[in-house]
Amino acid sequence: MGVSEDLSFRLQPSSGTLEYELVRYLKRLPETPKKVILESVKAFWLPIACLESGEFTPAELEKIGKNSLSILKNQADYLETVLGLEDEQYKINQKLYLLLCSFLESGKNEFKKEEDNQELKYSDSVFM
């Protein structure tokens, strides 16, 4: 049998703290707090731990990293939705993407901005 590592973690926050609210929330979840905490920590730190161990192939690291990114991105999206937060960079990227699609579909060197109906020349755009 392989070698094992032991890590114990105990948290007893005082009422009125953010950590207290976190513990109360974790205890109400359908999954055990231990499982939720482990999954959270794995998503956040497992790719770095595997990279630094030197025991994983580039393909394995890529798979582990992509899985963690997916979990973290889903959580970020969830937070944005439930808290009503807007990611400004995402909105900017979305506008640039739509502008680029409009330009490519037009087959011309100019297109119209839908917002104010102004004509833009290719050389005036953000793509130069």
State the gist of this model:
This protein is mostly helical. It has 4 helices and 2 strands, in the order ααααββ.
Question: How would you sum up this structure, described in words?
Answer:
The structure is a single chain. The protein is mainly α. It folds into two domains: 18-85; 89-124, no CATH class. It has four helices and two strands; from the N terminus they run H-H-H-H-E-E. It has helices spanning 18-28, 33-53, 58-83, 88-106; strands at residues 110-112, 119-121. Strands 1-2 form a two-stranded antiparallel ribbon. Helix 2 packs across helix 3 (58-83). The longest helix has 26 residues, at 58-83. The termini are far apart. The relative contact order is 0.05. Residues 120-128 have low confidence and may be disordered.
Query: Structural class given helices, strands, pairing?
Result: mainly alpha
**Amino- and carboxy-terminal Cα gap:** 60 Å
Which regions contain 5 or more consecutive residues with pLDDT less than 50?
Answer: 120-128
User: What is the alpha-carbon Rg in Å?
Assistant: 23 Å
Biggest beta sheet attributes: 2 strands, antiparallel
| General shape | flat
List key phrases describing it.
disordered C terminus; two-stranded antiparallel sheet; 60% helix; mainly alpha
List the helices and strands and how they pair.
Layout: H1 18-28, H2 33-53, H3 58-83, H4 88-106, E1 110-112, E2 119-121
Antiparallel strand pairs: 1-2
Helix pairs in contact: 2-3
